[in-house]
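Inputs:
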Amino acid sequence: MELLLIKEGFPLLSFLIFLPLVGAVVLLFFHGQTFARLWALVVTGATAVSSIPLLTGFDSSSTKYQLAEAYLWIPRFHINYIVGVDGISILLVLLTTLIMPFCVLASWKYIQQRVAPFMFCLLVMETSMIGVFVALDFVLFYIFWEFMLIPMYLLIAVWGGPRKVYASIKFFLYTLAGSVLLLVAIIALYLRSGSFFIPEMMWQPYSLTFQVLVFLAFFLAFAIKVPMFPFHTWLPAAHVEAPTAGSVILASILLKMGTYGMLRFCLPITPDATFLLATPILWLSIAGIIYGGFTALAQQDMKKLIAYSSVGHMGFVTLGIFVLNIRGVEGAILQMINHGVTTGALFLLVGMIYERTHSRELALATGVGRYMPWFVTLLTFFSLSAFAFPGTNSFIGEFMVLAGTFQHNTALALAAIPGAVLAAAYMLRMLQKIVWGGTANPDQSYLTDLGVREVVVLTPFLVFVFWIGLGPQPFINLIHGSVHHLVEQLVNWQQNQQVASVLWH
Amino acid sequence: MTIFPELVLAAGGLTLFVISLAKTPSERLTYVAALAFGTATFVATVLSFYSQGLLFYGAYAVDQYSQMFKVLIAFSLLITLVFGKNLKGISADIHAEYYLFLLLAVLGLMMLVSSVELIAILVSLELSSFALYLLVPMRDDRTGLRVQMEAGMKYILFGIMATGFMLYGMSLLFGLTGTTYLKDILLYLGNHPPQPAMVVAILMVQAGFLYKLAAFPMHFWVPDVYQGACNATAGVIATLPKFAAVALLIRFFILPTGHSPMVVELFAVLALCSMFYGNLCALVQKDLKRMLGFSGIAHAGFILLALLTLKAEGYGVAIYYIAGYVLMNLACFLVINQASQSGENVRIDDLSGLYKRQPVLAFVLATGLFGLAGIPPFIGFMGKFLVLTTVLRADHLLVVCLAAINTAIAIYYYLSVVKVVYTVEPEDRPSITVGPMVQLSGIVLIIAITLLGVFPGKLVDYASTVVQSLH
């Protein structure tokens, strides 16, 4: 337990986890539409505000798990309730809490039927998402990780688009099938290490075969969630059919769980397997970047376009993680946040145009620039951010990832460059069509520009786009300690590997 | 006080017998009497929870082990009585007989969990079995095909075959050890060298309980009986006898055969066959009860997995698992009983838009099905997780991997029911009204499924300690 910095007094993390759940339970008893909207906004807002003390209470110079809480849960099986944050997870927790109020706002008009159950699902989602990022006990983690499927399934299946049934089932089956072997791996690790406490499973001298098997089980679960290139087919379907808030949650937070899982579990628990298998995974990431780019270039559906661009962007994240150096990993974490901000905002924008035209077809949304100046202005900023224009947030992230990749292997980095070019190509293509279109634009004169609520929703995203883009140092400071510690241990491990392997075999 | 619950049940049976003598027994009176005795039984089991005693020349043990099972059985009986109100699908003039046999069947099950002697076990088992056999063909003949008769025949023929196996095994046990008392058999086996015949004897006895549990290869009756019996009866058959089956399987599993690796391997194979057979067949079902029947076969496989660890902890987990399984199945059958308008079978399509027609029922069904599928935080997940943990601890990696793959197969058919409930439009299907008692029991089940899933510690600890005391 010396790895934990137990927080005395107010249990902040548990409060963050369970406040939305309590809010959700209240919604079971009061069904009014207006009440449900306001209540969900109040609860998510309160969660967001109470997550701010995370920043003040967090000591970025320490590599321990902070603000931790530990309680006995199922002593017979050594399962405990342990939560804590470190540099890897703190930004993701904040991203979750801060984005949720905007998901509620984005659903304000979009969801007209069965509002209370919708808000119920959103609040339950928030509980399990925060839980995933702060859980330090593997069973607790797995419970949040799997439980999330139910509300997300319902969000897509009940409030989704025309092909919601197909999309929601595919999402559920893919993710669940991926994580059944994760459960076996968790139990196997418990039997070796004697506890479900995640930090105690790290840096243990497991045999190489064992590590490879565990790594593969982890990797399958996380790669499906990310999603990495050959496992990505559920993502476009789910993104396209989900309601706006669902798409935002999927893109901004759910996908990050896969990469978070790789950083938190694959690297420290199975380091030898990571070294062994990093190269094929790096090339899979490259494949994802290029494939996502080319596919996005061919899409006629705006949501699909952004969904495929996500495959490409997440490819950069996995690339950054598996080059296994400080720049790459820091860039990857930053890129996770950037993708959450930028893609979340893009989905919100698509949702706003969908509310007006009731179509996501690019062809039907051409030439709106004349009638919706605010809309296209914001769209331009976020599109520039999406293809990593200098001065925006993604530039910093991708730059760091590519710098890390050059440090690792020049050929790999050169292979990733076309992905960046492709990103510019498909985003600019979309931008050109939406803002100007051609000579045969449909009549868009009935469109009204964004209202105050919509601009208010998008402004914070814009702030973060430029904040991270122009002054990323505070963010990097937060994550640097933990990343430095992680990479340092990896390097030590690699250097001592020879000696160690002689000792064990 | 030691056999208070059994006495209440016997009194209930007699009362209903008297009621049934009337020319036209009042439907309302019958139900009130049955519900009153059901409630009284539950109260009686709780009151006599801590009682101890050895009765009838040591053939009947009232101890922590049996009382724990009795509480579980009585609770399930109460829930089935509440949601089976009106007995849709059974003609009104035989309601009294129906409840009479139901209470007798439960009496048999309660005696079974207390029996510690071979003859007593056989007598109690037959009491419960024959009463249950009779419940199946009591359904009225709405299809004109007499499916309920076919189901009844299948149930009784397979049941008698299983009893035959068991009797043969018991006779071998008696021949080998010279006693019919389980305690003396245990003592004998401890002091004598192992004999191969012992393995055969014990496996044959267990075959009888595998039949009750509906595990491969004694599962053939399940789909037809579930489909042919009326909804309330299927709900009883799917839940109550499983407790007794697990209780008795554990009693016989603790007898050392001297050839445990072989027994363990055999049961591992049976468990995997159960899972694959049940899950693969369930994938293509259209009738909800039939699907639940196949899913029950798959879950029986999980219980066998927990048993094959041959440790008190594994037995404790098996008890936890079966308790969870019954709770979730009760939730599903509660919904089936309400969704069926006049007692007909419920096809999965019939549940279309249940979410709009009756949100509470939809929520109960979704909880039950997600639980059965093993999604956290419900009890089905924790049961599955603890089973896999104990089995992997006993070093059966391959078995655990195959079992995990099975949970991935299973999710598909559970999810396709949830899909129908939540996403398909109800079209012209009428909305459903449910009484306050049924709603209440649905909510109680949801709370129990969730809370026991999140806090399994107490129950597993208790069950393991109690099993430890059997040795």
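The radius of gyration of chain A is 22 Å. Flag for discussion at group meeting.
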